[in-house]
Amino acid sequence: MTRPITAGVDGTAESLAALDWAAREAVRRDLPLRVVHAWRYAEALATADRDTQHGWASEGVSAAVRGVRERHPELRVSVDVVEGGAADALAAAAAEAEMLVLGSRGHGPVVGFLLGSVGQQVIAEAARPVVLVRAGDRPTAEAAGRDVVVGQHGGAEDSAGALRFAFETAAARGATVRAVRAWTLPPVFAYSPGSMKLLDDAGGLEPYERQALADALRPWRERFPGVPVAEHVEMGSAGEVLLSVAGRAQLVVVGRRAHRTAVGARIGSVAHGVLHHADCPVAVVPHE
To answer: Which sequence ranges are marked TM in the entry (predicted)?
Structure first.
């Protein structure tokens, strides 16, 4: 089954930027584009019945889609105007998509799409990659010379989903994958005789981390031999190291494990930090 690239649209400048980004990516990958808009019937509008309000919602989406079709006449586009909660509708759409693309409002620890309940829930619960795009995103940001940056951690399987997405995206764009692995000094009590031997065999902590990154990349280099790869290993927190190399990125890819709490799902601190502070679009990929 061919999965579409799906864009969630609500009429804001951020969602329209996400729609344009999704359309360009669909053209690159020769995939259809699906546009989803969720709306709720407002009983307070006594002069407008359900059909009328549905018509308003459909009209707003149609105007945005007309522009996409004019810019990309070869693109296959479908539109779904769904009555119901945005989070549920978008999570359901993501399950059927190659990726879900949403708008993000911008920077800062207080203001932002990601801290809203809808964005938080969708990112944490989506079974497929979710890409966040800011209102100021432009096609020129995807120019040659800008890398697809991806974070890698743990063993070879721990970041397989993020690495797969990064290599597929770079292959479609003719870009370089810049794989980033951050490391910190472990507490003394974390050492064991077995781990000490591994470190000794590798020649120390940093060579060990470099070898771990090389091992994780090996199967993807073999699968995508035409994609250039740059490896970046640096001591520091994962979020800070990723952001330090994201200035020349056209996309940053991070993996995520959703954490369940009493107040709902939460994404990890690395994904949360990158989503708030990266200037370019960010893809959050669930672990496989």
So the answer is: none
